[in-house]
Amino acid sequence: AAAAAALLEVGGVKIAKEDVVREGDPTNNVPDTIFSKLGQQLHRRDNHPLGILKNAIFDYFDGNYSGKFTKFDDLSPIVSVKENFDDVLVPADHVSRSYNDTYYIDAHTVLRCHTSAHQANLLQKGHNHFLVTGDVYRRDSIDSTHYPVFHQMEGVRVFSPDEWLASGMDATSYAAMDLKKALEGLARHLFGAVEMRWVDTYFPFTNPSFELEIYFQEKWMEVLGCGVTEQEILKRSGRMDNVAWAFGLGLERLAMVLFDIPDIRLFWSTDERFTSQFSEGQLGVKFKPFSKFPPCYKDISFWISDIFTENNLCEVVRGIAGDLVEEVQLIDNFTNKKGMTSHCYRIAYRSTERSLTDEEINHLQWSVREAVQNKLNVVLR
Ligand code: FA5
Ligand code: MG
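# magnesium ion complex -> structure
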């Protein structure tokens, strides 16, 4: 019975914890805290802000493309390095492939870091219009808009020659125009009248590539990346004569704006004061914060070594404090005459649900210090 309970089902695949988390195996860097997020599928809960948003985006595509887009929201987040990187032309030396940025299950298997990991397979299966929604995983820093698990929706549309030939435009311009029109329409569907702008950018899998920014609370916020699919990707799926567009949008970013959700950790909250505020089909109901509990700041200083990275520190802190850590911020950085470099980080502890006691925080900080010393090859000061 114990063994059965340890089996988790993701995307129709049964997995055991020891298939994903193996401490001491240098080809594996998935901690318990990340394993606990697998299979939760917040985007498939109709009463959760991410599910409500997903459904609203589906409504837009159903309404404008008469159901032509096939939807996938239960594909396993465990994918091969080939699917996550090679198939979308990510160069062999790209930083996103490093153990510092990506969760590896073994040398050939990762937790997908974007929903683009499914593009090539679905194209190969013959799909020409599809939306893929899912949880994605990235080793990253800690603050109110970054969490090591978040959700993306990928969209792909393939055109056949008759579609652009009739327009008199070249294939790439036609696809880029259609892409921008589709996404501007989506932004208006979700936000009503909003100020938005296109910014040129780079992705290995699209050319040209763009980001859409939305003006929100007096700032431009990046909500998605997109572009015209590289011909090489289409060619490999047997489509020599087609063009396509693709986009990948961040559901949390959009949901934080639509629902006024101030902290990305709240998406994972099971506190009824959070969950009860959202219901199916209710897009953009503003979240009323239950009183904000006081933060407590603790500093930690140490001499770093060559292999120190901030992502590794954040993982150690999350491993101890979980969602009680709100932010980890570098506040001091200097190198002494002997060439030793010291970092001081300020850790903000704050629960989204209750006040933390001094005793609890002191205990957390003590455990963090111990873990930092033992796991990060640094010397505490
Ligand atoms: C990508 O992941 C590309 N795969 C998107 C894409 C797909 C481009 C298809 C072209 C064609 P990027 O890393 O910028 O790109 O992430 C896309 C979106 O995810 C961002 O615009 C943002 O909205 C969201 N996002 C990225 N990182 C985070 C994070 N740490 N926390 C929350 N949302 C994030
Ligand atoms: Mg980006």
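# post-check
The mean pLDDT is 94.
The radius of gyration is 22 Å.
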